[in-house]
């Protein structure tokens, strides 16, 4: 391989499949492939784009993703952020990163050479939130290239809502400590999300925040206890009933009981039948 012209070697490497054998090919011998595949960010981007003309990004998930060089993982995130069909942070879910990798990714994305930060600012922060690590998000706030518009109260609140939706405990804690995220957004969506997940620690964390209103609801949305009931999370129902702030006289209270009956949750029905006795055992 080292005896052929560099450009020809690059052309051959660019037509290799991106699969579980890619790193093995790169490390089989000390050739041009080794440098291109393992250490050349520009080549990783070009190679990925070439492969995506005949396959989808999901082909990189599963067994392939853990074995990819980090340069390819960064290239994949760049493509996901700039995808014209981008709609939600859960499209990053099949491509997890460790905390250390998320920090390195944040550094690369924030250097301003990979993507247009102003055009994709929210998506950039969204992708860092998707891995549930607060350290990369902290880094983006202190990085010299930080875009101030990314960290408005509105956007921080959006990140909080999404973090509770996926149960990202450390990220939720940091966003609440930051102070600018509003946990009452969308009629208390963060608490409803945590109750729907049945995540005791997350619900407890949110209830410790004095801004959280446990009874929050509207004409369109019922209180958080309804989500816990609907998903059969008896332990969360009990936890909410034990909170002295829970109002048992809400107009929607009867619907909570009806929902428990229709779901066949006898344990929840018993709790709701004697709500203030829930902590007596």
Q: Number of DSSP helices? A: 16
Structural class: mainly alpha
Backbone CA Rg: 24 Å
Biggest beta sheet attributes? none
Element string (H = helix, E = strand): HHHHHHHHHHHHHHHH
Low-confidence residue ranges:
none
The average pLDDT value, as a whole number, equals 81
Describe the oligomeric state of these chains in a short phrase.
Answer: single chain
Helix content: 40-55%
Alpha carbon gap, first and last residue: 73 Å
Quote the beta fraction.
under 5%
Structure summary, number of beta strands: 0
Give the overall form.
elongated
Task: Tell me what the structure shows.
By secondary structure, this protein is mainly alpha-helical. Helix content is 55%, strand content 0%. It contains 16 helices and no strands. α13 runs parallel beside α15. It is elongated. The termini are far apart. The model has no long low-confidence stretch (mean pLDDT 81).
């Amino acid at each position: 391989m080292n005896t052929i012209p560099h450009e020809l070697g690059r052309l051959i490497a660019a037509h290799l499949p991106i699969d579980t054998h890619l790193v093995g090919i790169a490390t089989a011998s000390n050739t041009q492939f080794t440098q291109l595949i393992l250490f050349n960010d520009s080549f990783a981007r070009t190679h990925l784009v070439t492969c995506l003309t005949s396959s989808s990004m999901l082909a990189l998930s599963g067994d392939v993703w853990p074995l990819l060089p980090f340069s390819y993982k960064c290239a994949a995130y760049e493509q996901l952020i700039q995808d014209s069909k981008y709609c939600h942070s859960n499209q990053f879910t099949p491509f997890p990163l460790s905390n250390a990798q998320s920090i390195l990714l944040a550094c690369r994305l924030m250097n301003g050479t990979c993507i247009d930060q102003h055009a994709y600012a929210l998506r950039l922060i969204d992708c860092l939130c998707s891995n549930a690590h607060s350290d990369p998000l902290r880094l983006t706030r202190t990085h010299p290239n930080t875009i101030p518009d990314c960290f408005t109260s509105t956007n921080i609140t959006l990140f909080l809502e999404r973090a509770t939706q996926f149960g990202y405990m450390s990220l939720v804690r940091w966003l609440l400590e930051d102070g600018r995220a509003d946990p009452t957004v969308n009629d208390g969506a963060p608490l409803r999300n945590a109750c729907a997940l049945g995540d005791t620690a997350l619900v407890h964390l949110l209830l410790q925040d004095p801004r959280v209103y446990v009874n929050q609801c509207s004409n369109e949305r019922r209180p958080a206890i309804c989500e816990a009931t609907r998903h059969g999370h008896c332990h969360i129902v009990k936890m909410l009933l034990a909170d002295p702030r829970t109002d048992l006289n809400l107009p929607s209270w009867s619907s909570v009981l009806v929902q428990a009956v229709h779901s066949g949750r006898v344990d929840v029905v018993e709790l709701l039948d004697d709500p203030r006795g829930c902590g007596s055992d």
